[in-house]
Design goal:
Distance between the termini: 49 Å
Shape: rod-shaped
Number of helices: 5
Helix content: over 70%
Largest sheet: none
Order of helices and strands: HHHHH
Structural class: mainly alpha
Strand content: under 5%
């Protein structure tokens, strides 16, 4: 009603002030919408990056298990139970991330599954060997001297990370 009254007061002609009064709120709405869209995109990328990092961390922790087993303080039932519980927890976390990636980022799910399979193959065999070794009882024994091979896992991780980068 105010616009109609203003138009009648000026003899029916439209003024620049009236045009500005319409354009300014429209520009503000477009600006607010663009800000919202950009913020949502940034939040989505951050959430996806965090998901990817957590998935990679689970695999890395699994790859470290042969070292944890090899460096166990003793062969008591409690230590064996703790370490096997950790392995089981890591397997569950990796399975969770595989399923989550199939839902959230299907292009990443395949390379991540390949990474998990490589890690399980390499680290699983290494864990078996580590369990056969005597527990380490000295400080100097903590330096194992040679690293466990991660060739397949490292190659699969590089492919997976590249796909993850493209999906951010």
């Amino acid at each position: 009603m105010e616009l109609v009254a203003a138009a009648e007061a000026t003899g029916g002609s439209w003024t620049w002030a009236q045009t500005a009064a319409l354009i300014v709120p429209c520009i503000a709405l477009v600006g607010a919408f663009l800000t919202y869209v950009l913020n949502q995109g940034a939040a989505r990328r951050e959430r996806r990056a965090r998901t990817f990092a957590e998935a990679l961390t689970a695999v890395e922790e699994y790859l470290e298990m042969p070292y944890r087993i090899r460096r166990r303080p003793d062969s008591s039932a409690g230590v064996r139970q703790q370490l096997t519980d950790e392995v089981s927890g890591l397997l569950a976390r990796m399975a969770f991330h595989q399923a989550w990636l199939q839902i959230e980022a299907s292009a990443v799910a395949g390379p991540y599954s390949t990474l998990v399979a490589a890690a399980r193959a390499e680290s699983g065999a290494q864990m078996s060997l580590a369990w056969q070794q005597q527990p380490i009882t000295t400080d100097s024994g903590m330096n194992l001297g040679t690293a466990y091979s991660r060739e397949r896992s490292n190659a699969a991780r590089a492919v997976c990370i590249e796909v993850m980068r493209r999906r951010l």
